Amino acid sequence: MKKFFVCLFVFLFAHGSAYAIKAEDFAEYFEIDIDEQIPSLKELREQYNFEDSNYDRRYTAKRYIGNVFDSLFRKTITLYGTSEARIVSRTEEELMEVLERLPKEYYPYIGPYLHVAYGIPEKIKNMPGIKETKNKFPTRIAPQLADMENIEFLSPFLYILLIPELWPSNLRENEYIKMPKDNIHVHVQLPSNFMEKVRKVVPEEEFYPDNKKEEKTKLSELRTIRPDKNSPLTGGDIKAFAKTISKVNEFTKQGDNYLTLISAGTYLDLYEEDKGKALLLNTMKDLVNPCQRLVQKIKISGMETEFAKILAKDGFDIKGWAYTCDKAVKAYRKSRISTLTMQNLIDYKRRVYDGYMHDVLNIKQLETQFSLIQGAIEMHKSPQNDWLEMMNHYKDLRQEFEKANYMLGTEPLSF
User: Fold this and answer.
1) Which of 184, 280, 291, 336 has an alpha carbon 20 to 30 Å from 88's alpha carbon atom?
2) At what angle do helices 290-300 and 304-312 cross, to 10 degrees?
3) Is 327 strand, coil or helix?
4) Are residues 21 and 84 in the same domain?
C-alpha cells in the first residue's frame, strides 16, 4: 500500500506544479557545514531511542511468537472495531487533497484499489468519482497492454500502470529538422592577402616536420591547493576526484560500513528535524550535495580517520575532497541537462508558476513543492569555469560514474 501511494504522489507532482512562499526561501536548507559538531551515532541512537519500555510485546522474538492468539490483543482490536470512535490517520486529509487535485479521468485507475486496500476510511471511499469505481476495470488502457491475455484479472494495485500517459512511447516524439541527403559545400573565397596574414601570426618554422613544440603546463592541469566551497574547479581536480570514486565505494562496502552509513543518515535527518534545519523531504540534501552529506555521515559514524587515509593517497583532505566532489558532480549534471529541463528551471527561478501553485496547493504542499524546485536548481548550480573544465573531462568522469552505477557510497552521484 505504501508503494502505491508513493507512485501516486510521484505521478501527481510530475504532472502538477506561491506568492507567500518562494523557492529561494529554501536555499539556506541546502547549505552544509562540514565542521558542525554533530553527536556521534551512538549518542544519536540513545537520544532517539524509539523503544517504549512500557509496551509489552508479549513475545521475545518472532520465531518464538507462539501459536495462540493473544486474548488481550483480541479484546483490544474487538473494542476498536466495534466502536464509533476512529483515530484519523495523519495522512488522511493529505490523501483527500491529493485525490481532489487529481484529474477525474485518472480515478478509474486509483479508486478500485482504494476500495480493497486495508485501512482506507469510508470518507475517501465515498468521494464522488471514487465511489463509482468500486469493482470496475478501467476502460482506457495503454496500447502496450491492451492485448494482454486475462488483463481484466490484474490486481487493482497495478491499475495505475494502465494509464497511457505513463508510457513514454505514447508521448509525442520530438520533431527534428530533416537535413538534405546530399552534402552541401559552401564555397568561401579567401582574400588575396590571407596567407600573408597567416605567416605573420604563425612563424614559418612552426610548419617544419622536425619542429617540436615546447610543452607547457596548463593552468587547468594544476590542482587547487586548499579547495573550499567557492574555489574554481580545475581539470586536475576533476581527474584526481575521478580516481577516488572506486576507492570510496570499496571502503563503504567493507564490513558493516554501508549499513552503518544508512543508519547515520536516518539519525542525521532526525537530528536536523529537531534543530529546525530539515526539509519535508530531507533526502533532497543528499541529491544536491552528495559528497558533503557523505562526509557528515562518515564523521557521525566515527570512520573519519580511515576515510581520510584513503583520500590522502590522491592528495585530498576530507573537506577538500567533499567540496571538489560536489562541484564536479554539479558541473557534470549541468553538462547533461536537457533544453526542456533548463527552460523549466529558468521558469521556476522567474517564478512563472508561483501564482498557479498558490491557487491550487495548501501551505504544506507549497513547502514540499518549492523545496523540491529549489533542490533541482541547486543540483545544477555550477559556475561557467567549472562547467568548461568538466566538458574537457566529461567522457573520463562518465566512465567512472557508470562503473560506480552512479552511486558514491550511499549517495547518488547524478540524477
Assistant:
1) 280
2) 130
3) helix
4) no
Q: Is the Cβ–Cβ distance between 365 and 93 less than 8 Å?
A: no
Rounding to the nearest 10 degrees, give the CA dihedral for residues 195, 197, 198, 204.
90
Domain count, the chain: 2
Of 121, 144, 169, at which residue does a domain stop?
169
- Among the three residues 125, 149, 169, which one is the final residue of a domain in this structure? 169
Phi, psi of 411 (to 5 degrees): -110, 145
Environment class of residue 323 by beta-carbon count within 10 Å: exposed (0-12), middle (13-18) or buried (19+)? Answer: buried
Helix (H) or strand (E) holding 399: helix 394-403
Total residues belonging to the chain: 415
Domain that holds residue 347: 17-35+232-412
Q: Pairing state of beta strands 407-408 and 411-412?
A: antiparallel
Residue 323: the pLDDT is: 96
Is the same domain home to 256 and 398?
Answer: yes
* Residue 179 per-residue DSSP state: P
Judge whether 210 and 225 are in contact, CB under 8 Å: no
Q: Is 97 helix (H, G, I), strand (E, B) or coil?
A: helix
Q: Which of 1, 3, 8 is nearest to 160 (CA)?
A: 8
196: number of CA atoms within 13 Å, CB side? 3
Q: Around Cβ 366, how many Cβ atoms within 10 Å?
A: 19
| Element containing residue 305 per DSSP (H, E) | helix 304-312
Cβ(108)–Cβ(116) below 8 Å: no
The answer to whether 322 touches 298, Cβ cutoff 8 Å, is no
Mean pLDDT rounded to a whole number for the chain: 82
- 84 shares its domain with 31: no
Residues of the chain with pLDDT under 70: 1-20, 50-69, 71-91, 171-188, 206-207, 210-218, 415
Q: Does residue 201 lie in a domain region?
A: no
Element (H, E) at 377: helix 363-379
Closest CA to 332 of 233, 265, 256: 233
Residue 408 DSSP SS3? strand
Asked if the structure places residue 8 within a domain, the reply is no
Element (DSSP H or E) covering residue 411? strand 411-412
Q: What is the pLDDT of residues 176-225, one digit of tens each?
A: 455 555 555 656 677 878 888 887 887 777 667 766 666 655 677 888 88
Asked if 387 and 415 touch (Cβ cutoff 8 Å), the reply is no
